[in-house]
């Protein structure tokens, strides 16, 4: 793994495996990979990649994502060091790289309610906003007040709640090319013990139903209208089905787990197999909730 220095003295890793950074523990090499420690460093990295004509890929915890085995061309930026949390009244502002689990814990400590649903979600603030993540009756769009992003013209722009175009697993940043750098959450005063109890209930339910002991992306498919993806997969007899080292979980049919050094291609091929079988049996097309990117 070589290290090079573009202008402004920023470290870049070259030909770096993505798998160790990903929740799936799968994914090929990134041509270049960088982890900025400030917004200025982020700007410099993006400007450098644009000068080189490189594609730019920005991630948080690399959850809800499948990177194919051929990896990613251009520059991969991981936002994990941009994680400062600040409080102003009942609002918490968090850097895009902050773990949403950690932010939920901070809210609980401060007696602020509204993020209990996020207590067990394996992702970053930026990813939760980008995908409008949600669980257990809560969702990002219920509490996000505003979001600041680095736009393609290299300026920072703040979006109000109304401008975020939230929908099911969708936000405006899937369309406008903005890189989320910070989000502000409008919460409510609450009882710390009651907040913790609710978080514990959610985490217990998660541990009871989900295969948390294996690397995975969580729920793979969006909920089809009128159905539950996991039940369709289970009723199709697909639990335990595997491609390479990736298997449809025997604990929760909506999950695919990396049980034996599975690759990004294994994940994608298993997703397609499940889609084909469910459509054959029920004429329902399962749309992936996870993003699939990179070269084969």
What is this entry, summarized?
The chain has 296 residues and is of the alpha+beta class.
Please characterize this protein's 3D structure.
By secondary structure, the chain is of the alpha+beta class. Helix content is 26%, strand content 28%. The chain is built from seven helices and 20 strands. It has helices at 39-52, 100-109, 125-130, 173-176, 192-209, 229-235, 264-282, and strands spanning 2-4, 12-17, 29-34, 56-59, 65-67, 72-78, 85-88, 91-95, 112-113, 134-135, 138-139, 144-150, 156-160, 179-186, 188-189, 216-219, 242-243, 246-248, 255-258, 291-293. The protein has a five-stranded mixed beta sheet with strand order 1-2-3-6-4, with helices on one face. A five-stranded antiparallel beta sheet has the order 7-8-14-12-13. It has a four-stranded antiparallel beta sheet with strand order 16-19-18-17. The protein is globular. It starts with a strand and ends with a strand.
Radius of gyration, in angstroms, nearest whole number: 19 Å
**What class do helices, strands and sheet pairing give?**
alpha+beta
Reading side by side through the largest sheet, how are the strands ordered? 1-2-3-6-4
| Total number of strands | 20
Can you summarize the main beta sheet? 5 strands, mixed
Strand content: 25-35%
Order of helices and strands: EEEHEEEEEHEHEEEEHEEHEHEEEHE
Q: Helix amount, in percent? A: 25-40%
Integer average pLDDT: 94
User: So how many helices?
Assistant: 7
Q: Span between N and C termini?
A: 22 Å
- Low-confidence segments: none
């Amino acid at each position: 793994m070589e290290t090079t220095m573009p202008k402004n003295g920023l470290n870049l890793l070259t030909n770096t495996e993505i798998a160790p950074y990903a929740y799936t523990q799968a994914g090929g090499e990134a041509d270049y990979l960088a982890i900025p420690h400030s917004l200025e460093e982020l700007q410099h990295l993006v400007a450098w990649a644009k000068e080189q004509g490189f594609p730019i890929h920005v991630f948080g915890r690399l959850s809800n994502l499948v990177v194919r085995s051929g990896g990613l061309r251009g520059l991969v930026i991981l936002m994990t060091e941009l994680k400062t949390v600040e409080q102003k009244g009942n609002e918490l502002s968090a850097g895009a790289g902050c773990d949403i689990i950690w932010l939920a814990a901070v809210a609980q400590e401060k007696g602020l309610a509204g993020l209990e649903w996020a207590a067990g979600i394996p992702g970053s603030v930026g990813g939760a906003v980008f995908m409008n993540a949600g669980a257990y009756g809560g969702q990002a769009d219920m509490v996000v007040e505003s979001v600041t992003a680095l736009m393609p013209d290299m300026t920072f722009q703040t979006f109000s709640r109304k401008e975020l175009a939230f929908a099911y697993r969708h936000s405006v940043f899937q369309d406008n090319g903005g890189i989320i750098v910070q989000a502000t959450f409008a919460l409510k005063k609450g009882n710390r013990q009651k907040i913790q109890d609710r978080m514990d209930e959610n985490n217990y339910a998660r541990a009871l139903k989900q295969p948390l002991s294996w690397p995975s992306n969580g729920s793979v498919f969006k909920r089809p209208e009128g159905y539950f993806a996991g039940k369709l997969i289970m009723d199709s007899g697909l639990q335990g089905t595997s491609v390479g080292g990736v298997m449809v979980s025997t604990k929760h049919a909506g999950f695919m787990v990396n049980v034996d050094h599975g690759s990004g291609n294994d994940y994608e091929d298993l997703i397609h197999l499940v889609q084909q079988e469910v459509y054959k049996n029920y004429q329902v097309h399962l749309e992936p909730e996870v993003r699939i990117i990179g070269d084969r």
